[in-house]
C-alpha cells in the first residue's frame, strides 16, 4: 500500500471526509448507477462506466465522467481488493473536477463504502 499522491485542493485541506490512510493502487473499470430526483415523484437514473483508481479500508477513489452530489449514495458494480464481482453501496465524500483541453472534463470522486467494516479506531 502506498499513500495517495494526489495533493488536496485548498478547500479539501480541512475536509474531515478526506482520510489520510494508506491506499492500494488498483486501476480497474467499474459500472455505476446514480439516481436524481427530478421533480415531484419523478426519479431519473443515469449510469455509466468509471475507473476505480485506488482503494483503502472503507472506501475508494473513482474517476467518473459526471459528478455525483456530495453525500449522494449510489451503486458501484466492481471487484475491489480481490473480491469477486460485487455491488457496493457508496456515499460521495468529495469530488474534484479535472479539465482536459477546452471541453473535456472528468471528476475524481472519493467515496466511502456503506454497510461494510471500516478501519478500526
> Can you give the mean pLDDT?
78
Whole-number tally of structural domains: 1
Largest sheet: 6 strands, antiparallel, barrel
Based on secondary structure, the structural category is mainly beta
User: Spans of 5+ residues with little confidence (pLDDT < 50)?
Assistant: 1-5, 10-17
CATH-wise, what's the superfamily? predicted glycosyltransferase like domains
What separation lies between the terminal Cα atoms? 19 Å
- CATH architecture classification name: Beta Barrel
Task: State Rg.
Answer: 15 Å
The outline comes out as: globular
CATH class: Mainly Beta
Number of helices: 0
- Strand runs, count: 6
Write the H/E string, N to C: EEEEEE
Helix content: under 10%
Q: What spatial order of strands do you see in the largest sheet?
A: 1-2-3-6-5-4
The name CATH uses for the topology is: Thrombin, subunit H
Beta fraction of the residues?
A: over 45%
Written account of the structure:
The chain is an all-beta fold. It has a single domain (28-113), classed as predicted glycosyltransferase like domains (Thrombin, subunit H, Beta Barrel). It has strands at residues 24-39, 42-56, 59-64, 73-78, 86-100, 104-113.
Amino acid at each position: 500500500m502506498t499513500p495517495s499522491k494526489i495533493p488536496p485542493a485548498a478547500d479539501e485541506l480541512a475536509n474531515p471526509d478526506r482520510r489520510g490512510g494508506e491506499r492500494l493502487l488498483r486501476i480497474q473499470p467499474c459500472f455505476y448507477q446514480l439516481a436524481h430526483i427530478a421533480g415531484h415523484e419523478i426519479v431519473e437514473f443515469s449510469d455509466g462506466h468509471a475507473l476505480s483508481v485506488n482503494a483503502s479500508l472503507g472506501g475508494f477513489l473513482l474517476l467518473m465522467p459526471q459528478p455525483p452530489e456530495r453525500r449522494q449514495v449510489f451503486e458501484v458494480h466492481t471487484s475491489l481488493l480481490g473480491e469477486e464481482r460485487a455491488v457496493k453501496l457508496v456515499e460521495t465524500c468529495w469530488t474534484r473536477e479535472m479539465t482536459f483541453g477546452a471541453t473535456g472534463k472528468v471528476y475524481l470522486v472519493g467515496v466511502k463504502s456503506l454497510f461494510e467494516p471500516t478501519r478500526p479506531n
